[in-house]
Amino acid sequence: MSYQIAIDGPAGAGKSTIAKEIAKQLDFIYVDTGAMYRAMALYLLRREIPVDDSEQISAASQKADITIAYKNGLQQVLLDGENVTSFLRTEEVGNMASVSSANPDVRKKLVELQRILASRENVVMDGRDIGTCVLPEANVKVYLTASTACRAKRRYDELTAKGEVCDLDVIEADIAKRDHQDMTREHSPLRQAEDAVLLDSSDLTIREVVERILALVKER
Ligand code: DC
Questions:
Q1: How many Å lie between the centroid of ligand 1 and the Cα of residue 65?
Q2: What's the gap in Å between 96 CA and the centre of ligand 1?
Q3: What CATH number should be reported for the domain holding residue 30?
Q4: Residue range 86-128, pLDDT digits in tens
């Protein structure tokens, strides 16, 4: 039986940074499920499927072939055989992913793939519904969050460091909107699993969060 660590939480809480580090330290694979929803969104955008047409989204999503591979330990997402990893982290793809990930047919297809990956190898998997839906029997479940202001500031610093001009208030409003969409959708909304440990990273360093999660792994 594989060992499963599930990390859920809102955008910008530091899930992927933390999950990657834990996977590295434990020699587990890291599965970024958000990237799968983003690859699906890219597929829909490329086919110019209207964001509000759920029937077309349901139908088109079943034709997309999404697979995962690893290069130097880093997850790569293949869409119909093409490595699309470098196209996934744009605002356009993120906004489409936030809408299309609410579609039950999209979720069913990607959850199946996520469960297969987790059954084969020891995993650290991050997303929104890993502890509540994808891996309900995970050995360790963490709900990682941080205040909206803190998450907005992190995103602002990240973009500014890349030389992008941005507005902190706009970023904060965008994060609040995405949280609302993720938490209020009908299918698999973002919420803390009953048996998940709550960690607020607002006043913790990356190292402190990693250490707390590794301590949970040791305890169990
Ligand atoms: O974590 P992210 O920003 O890469 O996720 C992109 C979108 O996909 C986000 O709006 C929420 C959605 N998502 C989801 O519904 N379920 C997951 N397990 C992971 C992401």
A1: 18
A2: 10
A3: 3.40.50.300
A4: 999 998 999 899 899 999 999 999 999 999 999 999 999 999 9
